[in-house]
Amino acid sequence: MAFRISALILAGLLSAGACLAQTPPAPPSPAQQQAPQIQTGPIDRPGAFLLMRNALLALDHANKANDYGVFRAIASTAFQVNSAAKLSDIFAAQRREGLNLAFAAILEPRWTVEPQIEASGMIHMAGAFDVKPVPVLFDLLFTLQNGQWLLFGLSVGLAQPEPQAAAPAAPAPAKAAETKPAASAPKPAAPAPRPAPKPAAPAPAAAPAPEAPRQP
Questions:
Q1: Residue 144 falls within a domain, yes or no?
Q2: Can you give the pLDDT at residue 135?
Q3: Do residues 60 and 104 touch, judged by C-beta distance below 8 A?
Q4: Within-domain flag for 207
Q5: Which residues of 47-57 are buried (b: 16+ CB within 10 A; e: fewer)?
Q6: pTM for the complete prediction?
Q7: Residue 139 maps to which CATH number?
Q8: Which of 50, 43, 42 is CA-nearest to residue 109?
Q9: Is residue 152 helix, strand or coil?
Q10: Does residue 187 lie within any of the structural domains?
Q11: Is residue 23 a part of any domain in this protein?
Q12: What pLDDT digit, counting tens, does each position of 105-116 carry?
């Protein structure tokens, strides 16, 4: 076994010597120096969940302690232009509201922007946690720095209630119909006096029939 290890070490030394003896490569041409193209497209959900969770939980701890030193330190260099004092001012309203982000450790958000690498080379994701009484919205950007995806920017806050349609104005109460005494119906005109009926003319009395002659 010891011989084998020595042989491997020796082979390594020989390889190193061979590399040193080689002529250094020519500098790359301008065409070879072109930056590699960014692979855009969706990223896997578990990886996106870890990035989202770590960022929101770090912010949650910073808000509760009003100490943004660690939160700032684990973000990207571009994000660190914000001092800890400035971050304290930025998130003062969330501390007053008592914004709670601890549920980000266990809840799967409702994605409104699917986690993806955009043309800028940054990971972008946005979503909402449908918690009571008010949903929490977030929008996150991560940049690749030293082989790690680090926080570049974020926006977190409570969802604003949707404006409700104005209720139609209540109609003015209808006035009660005034009950006036009904106008007395005009009395029917008295019928014109009819002429008294004239007595019927007596029928002429029938003449008595002549008596038949008597026989002697």
A1: yes
A2: 92
A3: yes
A4: no
A5: ebbebbbebbb
A6: 0.59
A7: 3.10.450
A8: 50
A9: strand
A10: no
A11: no
A12: 889 899 999 999
